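Chapter review: from sequence to fold.
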Amino acid sequence: TYDIQVEYKDSIEVNKPSKIIKGVEVTASSKAEQAVQFDLGTLNLLARDQNGNDTTANIFIRRSGEESVVGQLIAVQSPQTLHLTPGTYDIDAETAAQGSATLTAQLKGVEIKSGETTEKLLRFQTGRLSLKVQNIAKELIAATYRITKAGLTDAVAEGEATVDGALIDLPPGNYDVHI
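The token string follows.
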């Protein structure tokens, strides 16, 4: 007689879902068969850029209210189908597209129920800053700008504003504009 532990290896969860089957009896010249069903829910995740196109993202999944990551996907293309242990999750994501600013999205309190499919959309969007520079006579002038996150020194954008100004796409947040 054996106790058999079966683990769902395809899960993205750090602690893989598993089940123990107790008392499996194997006798000479016989075959023992056991069906194992994992009580998981399905999460369909879509990651879209500001134009509504599927995009590449890094996804971090936590149990709601907890800090430790229970599962992650790095540089995956949308859409993604995940099988998770039932519960409530918080999902943090960031864009992973090469050559563009990193944008973030967050989903809180995503409920996963056994045998059910939940679909969620991660929408990565930017805001647009319209920058026009005036001299003391209130005449529009060309200028060099540097934009940092509020209170920080690393530039998130820099460039030249013409006399017509500049349009700058930025992730939502608070910024300092240096002219």
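Two observations follow directly from the output. Residues 90 and 108 are 4 Å apart (CA to CA). The chain has a mean pLDDT of 90.
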